[in-house]
Predict the 3D structure of the following.
Amino acid sequence: MSVPTSTSEALQLSIQTVPRSYLIRTDTEMYVGDLSYHNVSEARLQLVRPESSRVVMRSLSYRQTNNEGEHQKEAALAQLRHTLSLTLWPDGRINSLGNQPELLTRYRAIRANWRKQYPTDNDFTPAHLESIERVFADPDHLIRTISQAPEFELLLPAIYDRIYTYDQPIAGPPAIITPLTGSLTMPLQTTIVRRKPQYPDVALDLMLTGQLDKTLFPFDDARRWLQTLTGVVDIDPMPSLQYILTFEFDKQGNLLYAGRFVTCIYENVAMSKMVTTVGPDSPVSSATKH
């Protein structure tokens, strides 16, 4: 059993030899200056854990509502990174990526097709496509990118090898998000609390919340970015931020349901809201009742 049955036992990674399919839905709203964006994506993934420290994942399907330009590229990259062979550290962090060479080869084929299909499109310039290739060519960089993707914060959380007691918060893993622009990172400190389960098939209910780590936040970068957008020199670089993750496990340690809610606001300048849910890819589950 992977879910702790007493307050002295730690949550452990589970073995899951029978494939489980998950449905991941992400709803993203954003505006930056005069530009706005909305997209809803749905991905179906199949996940197997032949060993507690090993995960094999493959993409079953992917669709989204916004498929123009840059967003079409994002859809292709999402499907690419949803087929993975990973090993994990005991706390759930990704240790190694076994199929990185395969992912690089597949990306190069996609890139060649893009260059033929969009030879003059600014969203598919050689420099930009080469910068993406550098990510796939560097295993460590690729692991960091995968770890910070919303769906993998939920499917592969670094919350294991810890003891959870009801209503007693403990320090969680550090997190990094880029809610508004890839050039402005927001490092977070997190806290995890164990809650009373609301459904009979849920053995462990965890909520993780994050706060901006002011010691690491790049205030000068944020100030310059905001000044470029607004023309205002002395603008407050501190965003209004919410970061909440929830996890529900059954008694074998299998993930039943997970949710991620992130908002980042610079009032009257920029706003980002992203809601991601993960649940079994089936019509009958307590997860579908949430």
